[in-house]
Amino acid sequence: MDAAEVGHMADPSWGEIDRAVLALVHERAVEWRRGLADRPIAPRVDAEDVKDALGRELPENGEDAEAVVARLADAAEPGIMAMGSPRFYGWVIGGAQPAALGADWLVSTWDQNTAMRAVTPGVVAAEELAAEWILDLLGLPPTADVGFVTGATMANFTCLVAARDEVLRRAGWDAAVHGLAGGPRIRLLVGAERHDTVDHAARMAGLGAPRVVDADDQGRIAPAALAAALTDGEGPAIVALQAGNLHSGAFDPLAESIAVAHAAGAWVHVDGAFGLWAAASPRTRQLTEGLVGADSWATDAHKTLSVPYDCGVAIVADPRALRAAMGMSAAYLATVASADHADPHDRVPELSRRARGVPTWAALRSMGRAGTVALVDRLARSATLIAAGLAEMPGVEVLNDVVFTQVCAALDTDERTDAWADALRTAGEAFASSSRWHGRSVLRFSVSNWATDDDEVARTLAAASRALP
């Protein structure tokens, strides 16, 4: 930084600009949040309209910071979907709790590259506490390693890479030295209704297409079929199980499936993007019986915990396996990694990243144990109420056994179901996403928002009833 730059940073006017910009952001943010419960949920314009409003040409001379932020808010807000609405049920997306939102603002303000423990202790401490609390709430081994990544896709990827390298090591092959070519072929086994991001993560990890194992009508893997598949073939194996089916919310029979997989020498990974949080509540914990016996787990904090995007959580029971797969070293890094305290970059694919675990700490600190349990219970109760209300409407069929937070409903024909879905979303009072399940068009309600309660469920059901064709 030269003298002119130092002078610029020290200039009091720089602080005044900062104050004006942040004041504007605060005003617009409060206005947006205040209207979330009542504004139409769907965007009112498309991306091309927003580009027009933003200005398509890069200006020759720049605008002042306050004008830029005002332009962004004015242009983008008509194209912003109200995903934080308590009646938004699309794609398993949560809202943002106040404490987590505030912490996220501070994370951006502090602007820490959260790679090295000794360099950024202020944010690493919060992340480490959040990791400890997550393990405690979910009943997972306290010695497990936790990495904060962008979402469940990268959490699955991180865990599968750790699994890949470890099962190869057990087979006598060092992937870190020799790569994958020439080594034993890994068998990846998945249930027929696993989430597509497991396949995506496996592809990025070089595992190729998985072998698909039969599942029942709710999407739960069949342990007997898994056992048969594991005996059909040789070489190291990874089994990816599911805690929370995308459509039904169903959980694989974890205890039995994990026992079957471990008997065959396989590593067991559990994709629990939203469902893993069922383990936090005594009312839903039976869904995750046997969970602790797996080798790795993936989940999201920006779903059930309602922290701002993005925050996925990769958990591996054996810290050595995770750090061997993800870790790196370089002379210029101020590393203090030890058996007790690894650097954050040793647990995730990135070296440069924001302190995304800090809002998770804030959400958990704000709720406490009792509040976290109450949140999980409220989400599950809301799904049950939505399902019961939909089932009473003429012609509506609820297609899944509602065990956690997912509800799939349909009318007698795909055309009528699609028309119902379009009418509901167009009206704007509530939003549920469309999908296909078991060969039928469905309207899927994914309950993920911390503010969804009985009153919001009642408004949702009224909107769904009005939208019926």
Automatic annotation (TrEMBL):
<comment type="similarity">
    <text>Belongs to the group II decarboxylase family.</text>
</comment>
<dbReference type="InterPro" id="IPR002129">
    <property type="entry name" value="PyrdxlP-dep_de-COase"/>
</dbReference>
<dbReference type="InterPro" id="IPR010977">
    <property type="entry name" value="Aromatic_deC"/>
</dbReference>
<keyword id="KW-0032">Aminotransferase</keyword>
<protein>
    <submittedName>
        <fullName>Aminotransferase class V-fold PLP-dependent enzyme</fullName>
    </submittedName>
</protein>
<dbReference type="InterPro" id="IPR015424">
    <property type="entry name" value="PyrdxlP-dep_Trfase"/>
</dbReference>
<dbReference type="InterPro" id="IPR015422">
    <property type="entry name" value="PyrdxlP-dep_Trfase_small"/>
</dbReference>
<dbReference type="GO" id="GO:0008483">
    <property type="term" value="F:transaminase activity"/>
</dbReference>
<keyword id="KW-0456">Lyase</keyword>
<keyword id="KW-0808">Transferase</keyword>
<dbReference type="Pfam" id="PF00282">
    <property type="entry name" value="Pyridoxal_deC"/>
</dbReference>
<keyword id="KW-0663">Pyridoxal phosphate</keyword>
<dbReference type="InterPro" id="IPR015421">
    <property type="entry name" value="PyrdxlP-dep_Trfase_major"/>
</dbReference>
<keyword id="KW-0210">Decarboxylase</keyword>
